[in-house]
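Raw record, unedited: Transposase
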Amino acid sequence: MKIHLTEDQKKALELMHDTTRDSRVCDRIKAVLLASEGWTTQRIAQALRIPESTVSRHLKDYFSEEKLAPENGGSESRLLAEQATELIEYLTANLMHTTVQIVAYVWARWQVTFTVSGMTKWLHRQGFSYKKSMGVPHKFNADKQPQFIETYTNLT
């Protein structure tokens, strides 16, 4: 299958091939470039170690829609926008120590189920991060602390 690409199109595809990190996109770009050089789908499939039907689909997708990226963008959010905003405000105001507590809160509040790993990913996408809380001695007395420091410095 001989296809025609301009020099600008070839340069743009080669630049995209050099800069992209997704090997699936790279395979699609290589298939298009090799087809423009006169390679058959069978030779392209053999060179890229992918099925011939996949090469044909990549070429068809590129020429019908100029599609190079696969369509796997995840799923829709389980929380509505208002619920997500409310949860972010709640978590900002209230400290929750574990993701399990957050999952339980979301279930109790809106009857929406999350796995712990799913909630962790959602929290990271929203900009939250885990910070280990600092322990405070159980016999700590803020009033006696300056007195102790003064006594300790007098010893040295």
